[in-house]
Amino acid sequence: MNDADALVDPKQVDIVYETDEPVTYEVVDRVAWIMMNRPGFNNAQNGQMTYALDDAFTRATNDDDVRCIVLGGNGKHFSAGHDIGTPGRDLHRPFENRLMVPGHVNKPAAELLYTREKEQYVGMCRRWRDVAKPTIAMVQGACVAGGLMLAWVCDLIVATDDAFFQDPVNRMGIPGVEYFAHAYELPPRVAKEFLLLGERMTAQRAEQFGMVNRIVSRDQLRETVAGMAAKLVAQPRLGNWLTKQAINHVEELMGKRNAMEAQYHMHHFAHAQNDLTSTNSLGGLDAKSMASANKRQAGD
Ligand code: ZN
């Protein structure tokens, strides 16, 4: 098993990207608007998008004129989660890793996914959460599984009245997505319900627990977020940075990173168990079977 190429399934390298621009970036009135741009696939996150997001956060960080960052998704939904079934799913594409994590594509068995998710999922999310400027997530429609991770790394979350939040991966035998902030975003018993039942949580219920800051209609979403961003732009730059760090530090004192590390290893134990007992690391499920199970559960 020393031959790296032998470890790559040829089917998996047959990647068809539908766009060269999986993320759009624009600066308006000192606010960087970072928008996921795979609306045809409900902004499913592939590696191409992850690195484009990281490029956008880096660009916004390095531009002194930018004082606030907004993260949203073009189209009907914020994000349906990690890409587990589009033609652009690029599980086996190598990227230039940025977090002192080695490349994943030539790694055998469980090491491949463990390495990839350390860089692309939990590593990137932590990096964006700690960006030195205030961030606002702008959430409409679905915010599911990997989508939660992107909303949760932001300092503030504005959701539409038809937004919903869901982490259904217990259906795959997996204890939640990789950036395990569930019990920090929700009270523990509610987090258990959210994970164990895997049901959709409405924006209204999420707001009751403080997971969402504001709820607006779709036609007010951009305007509301722009108004909040304008206030942040007018605040002192260093103050914004220190204030968000102060709260992030409180979360660390509450053990957030340690909790995530513990869950990361359970998460990968579950992936490995799935690989041993089913047809893939997702318990034999894929985007299609997850979508139909979700529909059955929602009674659609
Ligand atoms: Zn995973």
Count up the helices.
10
SSE succession: EEHEHEEHEEHHEHEHHHH
Mean pLDDT, to the nearest integer, reads 95
At the third CATH level, what is the topology name? 2-enoyl-CoA Hydratase, Chain A, domain 1
Give the tally of structural domains.
1
Q: Write out the distinct hetero groups bound to the structure.
A: zinc ion
Percentage of residues assigned to helices: 40-55%
| Content of β-strand | 5-15%
From the 3D coordinates, which CATH architecture would you assign? Alpha-Beta Complex
Strand neighbour order, sheet with most strands: 1-2-3-4-6-9
Our measurement of the CA-to-CA distance between the termini, rounded to an integer number of angstroms, reads 46 Å
Basic shape: globular
Task: List the uncertain runs.
Answer: 1-8
Largest sheet: 6 strands, mixed
**Class per helix and strand makeup:** alpha/beta
Give the total of beta strands: 9
CATH class: Alpha Beta
What's the CATH superfamily, by name?
2-enoyl-CoA Hydratase, Chain A, domain 1
